[in-house]
User: Fold this.
Amino acid sequence: MEKHTNPWWREEVGYILYPESFKDGNNDGIGDLPGLISKLDYLKNLGVGMVWICPIFSSPMEDNGYDVSDYYAINPRFGTMEDLKTLLEEAHKRGIKIILDFVLNHTSKEHPWFQKALKEKDSEERKYYLIRKGKWIDGKLYPPSNWGSFFTPSCWERIGDSDEYYFHSFGTSMPDVDWTNPNLRKKYVEIADFYISLGVDGFRLDAVAHLAKDMSFEDSSLPDEDGDGFVLDPSKFSNRPELLSYLKEFREEAIRGRNVCLIGEVGGSIQPSEGVTFANRHHGPLDLLFNFDTVWNNGNFGSIGKKDEEIVTNVMQLKHNFTRWYDACHKECDMPLYWCNHDHPRVLGQYGSREYRKESAKALCLTLLFLYGTPFFYQGEELAMDNLVEGSIADFAQDVGTKDSILAYRKAGYTDEEILSFLRRSARINARSIFSWENAPYGGFSSVAPILPQGKDYLEGYDAHTEELDPYSVLNFYKMAIQIRKQKYYNDLVLDSQLEWVDWNHQDVIAYLHRGYQTIMVVTNMRPYQVYFTFNFQIADILLHNYDGVLLNNHVLTLRPFESFLFVVK
Assistant:
């Protein structure tokens, strides 16, 4: 398999962009491509070298664009194909590469393929989907298996009043496609080639871990913990052995040696050793591989019923997860680094603090940026944007996955107050809230009310315009940090030297170094209170720091809440 001789992503800092909430260019309350084009200079000045854009293809938006109804058309709410061409041209002028979100696992049920599959049982399109007969037991029809999906109790949806069902890993509006079908695989190769020919620089392959299924569709033997007759068993349709051959074929047929970056999303059910197989620099079908292992290390995931104060960052688990991926991959793979994306709550709410908002936002930036890998920041992180701390049930119910969860929580006996407390710190629509451009009506996002929820960040001084004018803002700290990381010496040092942890067993501090002609060291207090750190190094320089002054006495560094340093040490 031919791989790149110029892996340009090793030199870049990535930005994850949710177009619906980034910038509204035509004042209809919805972010769009013209709005994004108008803010390319902002991204360039931030230091971003590539932008992953969440789905912009034609879609009924049952799942925010991840339910594609036409891969060859741009969703009118986001613009036109001409707008995409303009975006590519203008981004490339500024040295920014564009990564499109590409959904390979499923389509919308409104896609012409699926509509024809339902209407014509003998059609080729019928073979593109996983349609199976149900099971008759004692005169009653049951789904083909007891498998659960990520969004609903069963991954099977009955087709009308027939005895047939179609398979869906996620919502019922998104039927999975059948990757055992070579004609279906060819269709996705053709789509990829079309966009590469337009000038797209890469694809983030959504839910790619789920392309291969256990085609026997035999019942899972896992226990039915909810008592509804279904079990979510990832082994049946996540990271299965067959996946590798599908991805290798896709790379060979679609990329054909062109310098395009393929980023896979594999969720939280993959081991680092498997990641090496998928993203090996020499023969892996993918170039970068996102996992979720460092996203939920505070007990927040599935924490319905817990109080906010019970959600505490597990610093040791964070270090463990960064380490196990680093140890397995750094010699053989490039790795992406990120705290969150559009599918997770905002990182300030996960690992930071509203009380120490600026300090913790800066600390999280610095801590991530100098670990091994290609860093990705999610839109708004650079402004210290927070979760929807005053969001309503209606705000969170706009998301299809959360809407179903709310009903399930109510059925389980939780009060709306308990549900809201949980959603305000954990729901993914927190990250999809409106970007804060200025202290103006609707935060400068649009001249009309946005369709997505909007927090009060722009009313609290956390907006792009206000922060650009403040030399000590979170935004300007990000710019300085990114500028340092992108300098060739420091980038090479981070990527090519050994990552060494310092005082590994410290429960509150993340500290690591890279040795070279200079030795750089990051020290970060991950707590909203003062801690102490033994410091047996000589400080040669402080490249970046989120406080004034250094509290060092007798080799003990006193770290204030979320205090973070980038040292040059001897």
